[in-house]
Amino acid sequence: MKAEIQGLFFNETGVNTPSISSTPSTELTIEKDVLDRSSKFILGRFTYQIDDPYQLVWQVTIDGKQVVQDATNLPTGSGTIDTTLFKWPNSAWANQPIKHTINVNIGLRKGFWQSVYNLSLPAVTWMTPAMFPITLLPSRNL
């Protein structure tokens, strides 16, 4: 079993998702006014290779502050999946025009699980974490 994140996409419109032929970025630069007018969604592209049903689990921190922990079910086999990693926080520290450090911890949990059931979930097997810088530029409309 193996899973890794290939890179990030900034989903400016919140409607269009990247095509499978588009290449994810390992570093993003976003203008603050563009971020403010956007969906604020940051997408991740994952590749995986599994022999049994698993759930892909991820935790995202921005500058050391956890912003999300989420998961999605994966079909058996190998492939690529694009999914929303997180929505950019609407907070003073996250909206400073600086280079922010995004850490993504990725793991796999055996089986398919839905959070609506209050079950004791199996342990997550964590993979190698990834780090991506996102530079937030000042607004041009100032």
Q: What's the layout of helices and strands?
A:
Blueprint: E1 2-11, E2 28-31, H1 32-37, E3 41-50, E4 54-62, E5 65-74, E6 77-87, E7 99-110, E8 125-126, E9 130-137
Parallel strand pairs: 2-9
Antiparallel strand pairs: 1-3, 3-6, 4-5, 4-7, 7-8, 7-9
Describe the protein's architecture and organization.
With 142 residues, the chain is mostly beta strands. It has one domain: Immunoglobulin-like (Sandwich). 4% of the residues lie in helices and 54% in strands. The protein is built from one helix and nine strands; from the N terminus they run E-E-H-E-E-E-E-E-E-E. It has one helix at 32-37, and strands spanning 2-11, 28-31, 41-50, 54-62, 65-74, 77-87, 99-110, 125-126, 130-137. Strands 2, 4, 5, 7, 8 and 9 form a six-stranded mixed β-sheet that branches. Strand 4 and strand 5 (65-74) form a beta hairpin. The longest helix is centred in the N-terminal third of the chain and has 6 residues, at 32-37.
